[in-house]
């Protein structure tokens, strides 16, 4: 039901408003399954236009019931708490972007008052001090939040449409040199030294390495199985989660030296929950591992130039495989990439390109005796061939 009614009534032969000062017309409509809604206007044209908009929204499925204004900051807090599908580390990252950038910039606005121009302005503000990749990630969380608000019926449509983002320039990965990794082993906090060695030899992700347990190590076949990763954020609580992707579930061979290292570790103090790597009986959380890495950067020349995290050992491992002649498919399996395309996207610059191979194939096929050539050169001023 939808209609506009005249709120003026006759009383003692005078025209008297019965609802709202200066309001003569009231739009009245009832969404399916909800209570009747009303709103008053000074003119019939305004009431009719508003009513047509409500009816159109109900027909298109974009209608939003009028309700109390919700601040973006309040909705962000509720949205973040409901991200049950996210891993603790991912939730921690989302919380950081909300707290540091999104809420300070847009939190004071009502959720349905944020326009596309406001979002574009926020992106521009972030771009002045943040790296393009950080801006892009922050915006992705903002867009996801507005998408959820649409699904919740809080707003009719998201303002995150056609936003111009800064270009993320691809930076070629420069792998650590072997001598730098060796120095890292010798200077990092002692409990982490075996982890550095095995990470360099396997290319495991940090969470995969820190979550490795003895029941995943097969000494009979020299195989290690990766089917979960450590997601604990506190050292007094163990929690595992699934690998990053379905392709991250894998079993890989390790060399004899790595097996001997693991056997030596097995004879020492066992880690909680069967963890292979631990620090004084406590699990190596993501935060603790990052702090240990940062603490050693200044004492290992060349480490800071290549990166700031454990992922650099993964890049080092990949570079060794490529230098050894392994195919993109084999490297992708070893690293647990989704496919060889992802591997090439990350490491293509480390493989010899076709132009280099072409030069090696064709160079030297036809030769010239330079001494004979120099002896047979014509005299200066010669007219040419005899």
Fold and architecture overview:
By secondary structure, the chain is mainly alpha-helical. The protein folds into three domains: 2-60, no CATH class; 72-151, Orthogonal Bundle (DNA polymerase, domain 1); 178-350, hpI Integrase, Chain A. The protein is built from 16 helices and ten strands. It has helices at 44-60, 72-81, 88-106, 116-127, 132-151, 178-187, 193-202, 206-210, 256-266, 286-297, 303-306, 311-323, 328-335, 340-347, 354-362, 370-375; strands at 2-6, 8-11, 14-17, 25-29, 37-41, 217-218, 223-226, 229-230, 240-241, 250-253. It has a three-stranded antiparallel sheet, with helices on one face. A three-stranded antiparallel sheet has the order 6-7-10, with no helix packed on it. α7 (193-202) crosses α12. The longest helix is centred in the middle third of the chain and has 20 residues, at 132-151.
